[in-house]
């Protein structure tokens, strides 16, 4: 029986995993791809930003597939296999805080998955600008160490000298992976799909205890603040507050992302950020029967949830109208 090809996309928060996923889906022509997206927070943003695929997008939120929602990952793949639907491949986008080892363990130790799934490659996206600030975290190091392909992304933001130093550091953590320098994860699909790069023997050299059952524990100082509300935002107040927030605690903000409902705007606004860097753009128009929502996630170290929620609430247009 032909096994279903599966690719795991990993990488730390904000590296560009969803950008890579969208690039691959847009290049897939008629291929039927089942997508599983895992997000650390209870509010899922990435699922709304993924381009349309011929198969469904399965979202696993409010925890990492390496620990709290690991059983959900196994169940989702089992359901796909049992559905009888024609699927050419599965692509899994992990949370930016996922440790790859327990994820791989699921494919190796689960009887059904090991029989019917063939892991093709682990592709890790690395943020060329911020990776040096992230490598004190075990998850970031593990994601690089387990990779079959490393995409050194956002190379347009750094000098050639710094890129050479970063690539040398990556090579010291993973001497076997192929390293590709990318801008906006612009690679051809054949550079990361159907490459047959996954090798359990190599993985066991990195993690000899991989096949032993163990739980992954995240740093307890890392948390998530998720906001979801239907009130519209005053865009001037929001931009000013977000910039103040980044200036104050940017070093501890690993990831910010959201879909925003600005007052009197026909289109949603999509923003994301990593540490001190913020980007945003108008998204697609709100449809007539669609509920307009603000959905935002902040992930970082020692976040003050009360202060973040208070600052956001002050940007709601209704609250500002009452205050004036």
Measured between the Cα atoms of the first and last residue, the distance is 69 Å
Strand content: 25-35%
Number of discrete helical segments: 12
What CATH calls the topology of the largest domain is Rossmann fold
Report the mean per-residue pLDDT as an integer: 88
Beta-strand segment tally:
12
Q: Which residues sit in consecutive blocks of at least 5 with pLDDT less than 50?
A: 320-324
Looking at CATH, the homologous superfamily of the largest domain is P-loop containing nucleotide triphosphate hydrolases
CATH class of the largest domain: Alpha Beta
Q: Strand order, biggest sheet?
A: 3-2-4-1-5-6-7
Please tell me how large the radius of gyration is: 20 Å
Tertiary shape: globular
Going by helix content, strand content and strand pairing, the class is alpha/beta
What does the model show?
The chain has helices spanning 17-26, 46-49, 70-83, 100-109, 111-116, 131-134, 138-145, 160-173, 200-206, 235-249, 305-313, 317-323; strands at residues 4-11, 33-38, 57-60, 89-93, 117-127, 149-153, 178-181, 222-229, 253-260, 267-274, 277-285, 294-301. It is an alpha/beta fold. It folds into 2 domains: 4-206, 3-Layer(aba) Sandwich (Rossmann fold), CATH 3.40.50.300; 222-323, CobW-like, C-terminal domain (Hypothetical Protein Yjia, Chain: A,domain 2, 2-Layer Sandwich). The strands form 2 sheets. Strands 3-2-4-1-5-6-7 form a 7-stranded parallel beta sheet, with helices on both faces. It has a 5-stranded antiparallel beta sheet with strand order 8-12-9-10-11, with helices on one face.
């Amino acid at each position: 029986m032909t096994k279903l090809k599966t690719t795991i996309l990993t990488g730390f928060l904000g590296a560009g995993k969803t950008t890579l996923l969208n690039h691959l889906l847009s290049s897939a022509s008629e291929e039927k791809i089942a997508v599983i997206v895992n997000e650390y927070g209870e509010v899922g943003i990435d699922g709304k930003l993924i381009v349309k695929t011929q198969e469904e997008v399965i979202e696993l939120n409010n925890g990492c597939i390496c620990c709290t929602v690991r059983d959900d990952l196994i169940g989702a793949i089992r359901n796909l296999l049992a559905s009888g639907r024609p699927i050419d491949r599965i692509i899994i986008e992990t949370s930016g805080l996922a440790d790859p080892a327990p994820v791989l363990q699921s494919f190796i130790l689960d009887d059904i998955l090991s029989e019917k799934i063939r892991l093709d490659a682990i592709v890790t996206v690395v943020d060329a600008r911020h990776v040096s600030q992230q490598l004190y975290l075990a998850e970031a190091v593990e994601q690089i160490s387990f990779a079959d392909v490393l995409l050194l992304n956002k190379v347009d933001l750094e000098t050639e000298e710094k890129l050479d130093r970063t690539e040398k550091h990556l090579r010291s953590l993973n001497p076997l992976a192929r390293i590709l320098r990318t801008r906006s994860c612009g690679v051809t699909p054949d550079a990361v799909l159907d490459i047959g790069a996954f090798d359990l023997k190599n993985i066991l050299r990195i993690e000899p205890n991989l096949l032993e059952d163990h739980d992954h524990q995240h740093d307890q100082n890392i948390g998530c603040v998720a906001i979801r509300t239907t009130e519209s935002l005053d865009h001037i107040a929001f931009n000013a507050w977000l910039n103040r927030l980044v200036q104050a605690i940017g070093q501890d903000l690993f990831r910010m992302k959201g879909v925003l409902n600005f007052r009197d705007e026909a289109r949603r606004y999509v923003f994301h950020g990593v540490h001190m860097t913020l980007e945003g753009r108008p998204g697609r128009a709100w449809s007539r029967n669609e509920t307009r929502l603000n959905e935002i996630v902040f992930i970082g170290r020692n976040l003050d949830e009360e202060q973040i929620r208070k600052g956001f609430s002050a940007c709601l247009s209704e609250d500002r109208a009452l205050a004036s």
